[in-house]
Design a protein that fits this description.
alpha/beta, D-Maltodextrin-Binding Protein, domain 2, eight-stranded mixed sheet, 10 strands, about 40% helix, globular
Length: about 325
């Protein structure tokens, strides 16, 4: 029995090797530029996560190609727990938007820890002569191809959510990709872009800014963070619904014990009042999950996004 105990202890030590002995830095890779929802979320938890796993956790932004550059870098990293990806719906979206990718969004990753969900807000430039989703659709139908929408990059959730809106509404808009949501919002504010579907964290700070108008939220129900805003569906586009999960992924093949350690640490953070307050300020609805439940969510979302991408006509060859 004593030998069995020692063998089990040795295996556990090997599984946790990345977090044992000489200190190693853990990187949370963010696929978009600083200031976006994923970047802010990663920086809201990295220090506390590091304290719980006993390592320094840093945030690294790797931008470009709708997040696929960062995704590919994490997929090719050693599966030892030292490289994680702060991913969102854009991760499953790109698997259907891009005809060719150097990785598979499900097979080449490990679901480590779900953090929460975010809705989006349809924002338009304040000079546009409309006050509702219904009026916006009618206006765009009268002006096909004359107005544009900004996004955080081709293949991002901000891109697909607006492309899906345009397709479902039967309107024609020009897509202008940027590197981050905050950059896209700024372009709408100054009038170089006309609309953006921004995450709640990006949109709410501008709720009283006359340079923009907020017409509705993307979820199936009104957001608790902006209850005065109607859903896009109730405001003029029946059937529209779009939201995004957010969580930590790692490369495929991560040791089970390492995954469990990080998952447990994140789930504990989601009970911390300080962390919950930060998430609330970012418009994130927290939701702890086991790695198995998170894996099922990714599989379901991958299938759902295939249908949404097809409906949006956002395929890139």
């Amino acid at each position: 029995m004593g030998r069995s105990f020692l063998n089990a202890a040795s295996l556990l030590a090997l599984a946790f090797l990345p977090f044992a002995g000489e200190a190693q830095t853990v990187r949370i890779v963010v696929p978009f530029a600083a200031g976006g929802v994923q970047d802010i979320l990663a920086r809201s938890i990295n220090q506390e996560l590091g304290a719980r796993i006993g390592r320094t956790v840093i945030v690294e932004n790797r931008t470009g190609a709708g997040g696929t550059i960062a995704n590919a870098s994490v997929a090719k990293s050693a599966p030892d727990g030292t490289t994680l990806l702060l991913a969102a719906a854009s991760h499953t979206i790109t698997g259907h938007v891009y005809a060719k990718l150097p990785y598979h969004p499900l097979k080449d990753f490990t679901a480590v820890a779900h953090i929460g969900n975010v809705d989006y807000v349809l924002m338009i430039n304040g000079e546009l002569p409309v006050k509702s989703v219904q009026e916006l659709i009618a206006f765009l139908k009268r002006n096909p191809g004359k107005y544009n929408f900004a996004s955080a990059g081709t293949g991002s959730a901000t891109h697909l959510s607006m492309a899906y809106f345009s397709n479902l509404a039967g309107v024609e808009m020009v897509h202008i990709p940027f590197k981050a949501t905050n950059e896209a919002i700024q372009e709408v504010m100054v009038g170089r872009a006309h609309a953006v579907m921004a995450s709640t964290i990006g949109a709410l700070p501008f709720a009283r800014d006359s340079r923009v108008k907020m017409l509705g939220v993307s979820g199936a129900k009104r957001s608790k963070f902006a209850p005065e805003l109607p859903t896009i569906a109730e405001s003029g586009l029946a059937g529209y619904e779009f939201d995004s999960w957010m969580g930590l992924l790692g490369p495929a093949g991560m040791p089970r014990a390492t995954v469990e350690q990080i998952n447990t640490a994140v789930n504990e953070l989601l009970k911390d009042p300080v962390i919950l307050d930060r998430l609330a300020k970012q418009g994130v609805e927290p939701r702890a999950m086991s790695p198995e439940a998170f894996t099922r969510l990714l599989q379901d979302d991958f299938a759902r996004m295939e249908r949404v991408v097809k409906a949006a006509g956002a395929r890139i060859e």
